[in-house]
Amino acid sequence: MQSFLVDHTHHSSDPAVADLRGGFTSTRFVLVEPSHPGNVGAAARALKTMGFSRLVLVSPRGPHVQSDPEAIAMASGADDVLASAHIVPTLADALSGVHWSIALTARQREYGPPQWTPRAAASLARDEALHGEIALVFGNERTGLSNEDVERCSALAHIPANPAYSSLNLAQAVQVLAYELRMIYLTSGGEANAPANPAHQAAASAVSAEPSGPRAASDEIESMFSHLESALVALEFLDPANPKKLMSRLRRLFARSGLEREEVNIVRGIAKHILLKTGRKDDGA
């Protein structure tokens, strides 16, 4: 998946964008199983208007979506962003090399990662983008994201729309998040980036501590959870037939910490020794 690291951002005449090119180029937008080619084209347009260009499509429902006439029409001049979109089979592939991701959800989730407003989420994203690749993940137009997809992400964002009519088009949701990210990226380093209220202050402080080492990538964290789950089963602390959301709660716990690679290795080392002591087969890589 090395192609994700290629800089596809178009050179802008906006000097602020040029100064903060790292943030714009380290951010990818992921659409999971989009159903309508027009929404994909409109999402490409939404990204380009905000200075982003990295679009990833996970198993789009329509064949040849990048060359679909409706998608091209709705892109309305963002044909280059549409044409350069990466198509991958799974969300795991889309998050390859990403160390932090945020999932947009249309409803409150009892379990899963911490949840923020788009503006507070943008504050988190700004700080995480300093440490490497990040991703914003959007679900299918009809069903949204599965619980499994949500739990793979580091945090959640929820647009507080009118509760009497909260339906947002996929491209509109992309536009809202892209706008908030653009504003926080453009004001980084200046007084304008001060959080507007206590909730935003909490979001900013949640990741304010500088890591002592490189952040763990999404695939490394997933391997850690798989290894840890095997160890907990071996200890009979986790009953696979009646898990009681234990792994979901642990995912939420670790999502709040901003895991570094060395910390992931420590957890995996613990899991490995548990499996050795219990005489269970260690399938961890």
Chart the SSEs and their pairings:
Elements: H1 15-19, H2 21-25, E1 27-32, H3 37-49, E2 55-58, H4 69-75, H5 79-83, E3 86-88, H6 91-94, E4 100-104, E5 115-116, H7 118-129, E6 134-138, H8 147-152, E7 155-157, H9 170-186, H10 198-206, H11 218-234, H12 246-255, H13 261-277
Parallel strand pairs: 1-2, 1-6, 2-3, 4-6, 4-7, 5-7
Helix pairs in contact: 3-4, 3-9, 7-9, 7-10, 11-13
Summarize this structure as a short list of keywords or feature phrases:
285 residues, disordered N terminus, 13 helices, alpha/beta, 7 strands, single chain, 7-stranded parallel beta sheet
Report on the structure:
- With 285 residues, this protein is α/β, with parallel strands linked by helices.
- Mean pLDDT is 82; it is low at 1-20 and 189-209.
- Helix content is 45%, strand content 10%.
- The chain starts with 14 loop residues before the first helix and ends in an 8-residue tail after the last helix.
- Helix 3 (37-49) links the parallel strand 1 (27-32) and strand 2.
- The longest helix is centred in the middle third of the chain and has 17 residues, at 170-186.
- The protein has helices at 15-19, 21-25, 37-49, 69-75, 79-83, 91-94, 118-129, 147-152, 170-186, 198-206, 218-234, 246-255, 261-277; strands at 27-32, 55-58, 86-88, 100-104, 115-116, 134-138, 155-157.
- The chain contains 13 helices and seven strands.
- Helix 3 packs parallel to helix 4, helix 3 (37-49) runs parallel beside helix 9 and helix 11 (218-234) packs parallel to helix 13 (261-277).
- Strands 3-2-1-6-4-7-5 form a seven-stranded parallel beta sheet.
